Amino acid sequence: MKRKKDNKRIYYFGIGLLILFLILGIKLYHLQIYKYDKFRSLSEGNRTAVIPISPPRGYIYDRNKKVLVSNKLTYTLSVIPDKVENLDNLSNELSQIVDLSQTEIREKINSNSSTEPVKIKRDISREVLILLEENKSELPGLIIEETPIREYVYKDLASHVLGYVGEISAAELKKYSSQIYSSRDIIGKTGLELFYEKYLRGEEGAKLIEVNNLGQKVKTLAVEEPTQGNSLILNLDYDLQKFAEKTLQQQIQKLTERAKKNQKKPQEELDEDAITKPPKGGSVIISNPDDGSILAMANYPSYDLSLFSGPISNKKWQQLNQNPLHPLLNRATNTSAPSGSIFKIVTAGAALEELGIEKDDMFYDPGYFKVGGVEFKNWYPGGQGDISFVDAIAWSNNTVFFKLGYRLYKKDKTLLQSYAHEFGLGSKTQIDLNNEAKGLVPGPKWRKNYFDKRANQIWYPGYTINLSIGQGNLRVSPIQISSLINSVANGGQLYQPLLVDKIIDPQGEVVKNLKAKLFNEIPVSDEHLKIIKQGLKGVTTYGTARRSFSELPVTAAGKTGTAQTGSNRPNHGWFAGFAPVDDPEISIVVFIEYGSSSSNTLPIAKNIIKEYFDTQSEKKAETE
């Protein structure tokens, strides 16, 4: 009986196995025969993918080969669009891991080719990397690769000069359509990163990888290495740049504190030049007068370039972009304002050449100059009486220059404007940075074009009188004033100011030497330039800036400028000068926006001159 039961069990077990093998056979037929063509196609489509390799950009060095900008490796998240099974699901999942909205992710993927990887996020953190690795099996199409990004070694040092990079925009892609750019590229956005983009960018490489059906990397099949971009060696000196930035920042912060304290004091306790509102910012330019090369260019406020190494968050961008102090603005090149009395250098040159003025010519200053019923006042109450031409420069006597401006107007309505243009005002200096301000030298033609009403189009002599001391509608930038003061220091040559000295390839070979263009020979004779220099020397030795420039290791020359801004706003403060007087090595321009008085610029100029020549003495002692 037991034997019959065992046989029955074996029978049913055999039947079960037969049915199971039959089912498996049908399934195998379905997969291997019926679905063969489909799976073969999918296998081929999923087998390989070409991943572009971003090239490392060239380095940026100071004049002594100190690295200011380099590269570092980081992780970048990309997506292969045609491997994405469900875009809504992918964008939803990724938005919870990376700092991007679903809309941003979808737009990035939809606006690009379906076959090439699309960069979704640069510089992802290790925490985000771990989350992506944990979830990538559920997110088809993800590729994570190491890529180079910018490393700004000193963060906010020379930020307006160096500039930053970012993802190429649609407008930029269109602009660079004649060059090999794609929507995944990183390009220079501001500063030298933008101006020298074609040298810094390098050549893209590529990697052929094997991927699975989820678009995930299995292994690398072949690599074409990218080529690093060329590097820049600047005229900029790291130590001088750092000192200029520190000195500018300290002075503006000091003025800000002083203004806050003065706001609490009764008006009768304040001096006429007392600062009562904080400055908005400022700039310093230090250059070599012999060729205009820029040794330092400081701006305050500044900003942290490392914010732009990876993609900057919207919050941080808004904080920078909407800051009322405009930290992204390069005040050295992109700001223009009245120059105040620094313009008297132009008026002096024109008067010496055109009016036959001699250095010892005497003028009488009653404290004002009156013409056509309008009284133009000197800054010195009651006037200075009899004063020579050279002393008028040293003491910045308005009355003397009012008279000279009026005489130039009587000779030719546009004569003073012509000299201003000869000194480079009203034109871009062509410094190697983008978005340079052109400025304005106002004259009869400008007034006629600017105003609609006939009564406002007339150029009256009073406008030239105002122009003669750098007031009115005159607009100049600190870099233009730098070129102007250099032309006086070097004997009359107006050069293109340059930040970059040379460009080298990755092997260190020179690709290009940058040579400053000589734009103009100032139409002021050597003899007359010496007279102007004598007056500028008087400014620092016995004139308006005498107290600030005592106890320096060298004798400096310079000119102060307090520029009126109107609308009850504080004046701008200016200083432009060079040292030593007889054989200039450096020139300095200081501009403080709404700095109240030129006297507030003088501590900056003095400290920089002292630091520079003390350092030079130390270097000389070390070599001896």
Structure notes:
The protein has 624 residues and is an alpha+beta fold. It folds into two domains: 48-234, Alpha-Beta Complex (Penicillin-binding protein 2a (Domain 2)), CATH 3.90.1310.10; 238-261 and 274-623, DD-peptidase/beta-lactamase superfamily (Beta-lactamase). It contains 21 helices and 23 strands. The strands form seven sheets. Strands 2, 3, 4, 5, 10, 18 and 19 form a seven-stranded mixed β-sheet that branches. A five-stranded antiparallel β-sheet has the order 12-11-23-22-21, with helices on both faces. A three-stranded antiparallel β-sheet has the order 1-8-9. Helix 3 packs across helix 4, helix 12 (344-354) packs across helix 15 and helix 14 (398-411) packs across helix 18. The protein is elongated and about 135 Å long. The model is unreliable at 27-44 (pLDDT under 50). Residues 53-220 form the Penicillin-binding protein dimerisation domain. Residues 282-609 form the Penicillin-binding protein transpeptidase domain. One of its GO terms (biological process) is cell wall organization.
